[in-house]
Amino acid sequence: MDIQIGDRITYKCININKEDLEVEIIKDNIMLDDYKNRFENDFWELLKVERPNYSVIEEKKDLLTEEEREFLNIMIKFYVITHIRFNDTDIDFLNNEHTVSYLDYPVNLNFNNVKRHKRCALSELRIGGINKCMEYGTL
User: Fold this and answer.
1) Which parts of the chain fold into alpha helices (H)?
2) Which contiguous run of DSSP H or E holds residue 14?
3) Cβ–Cβ under 8 Å, residues 87 and 104
4) Which H helix or E strand runs over 13?
């Protein structure tokens, strides 16, 4: 039988009269080699190999498409922005003191993966750029 790392194996020792089954999970290459060697001799019998079926429970997706990210990078290039809030029809660019609203999304940008009315940090959106007004401390 084919054994791989991550498999759960069920086996028994043939020379012992009791029928106790052993169950083990192969965790690394050392265990894998050890158990392969065990089953080559006549003392151990491999009864079952179970391989886990991995399925995606949670996957972190990008919130923005490349076009949406490029648009926002252009918009924040000249401002000191800490957060962006996406509303139903506009985008608010925020810092600690001011808010600049951009009305109406561009036609080809929908921002579908972003929750509405929630402040998003630039790092969360994976955007950022050169803040040219940083030295002046103004929006």
Assistant:
1) 29-40, 66-76, 122-125
2) none
3) no
4) strand 8-13
* Distance, CA of 90 to CA of 110 (rounded, Å): 11
- Spatial separation of the C-alpha atoms in residues 72 and 75, rounded to whole Å: 5
- Please indicate, yes or no, whether the overall pTM of this predicted structure exceeds 0.70: no
Q: Which residue has the tokens 């083990």?
A: 24
On the 0-12 / 13-18 / 19+ scale of CB atoms within 10 A, 46 is: middle
Cα angle: 65, vertex 97, 116; to 5 degrees: 35
> Would you put residue 73 in left (φ > 0), alpha (ψ -120 to 50) or beta?
alpha
Each residue's pLDDT tens digit, 43-63: 888 899 999 887 777 777 788
Per-residue pLDDT tens digits for 48-105: 999 988 777 777 778 899 899 998 988 888 778 889 999 888 899 998 888 888 887 7
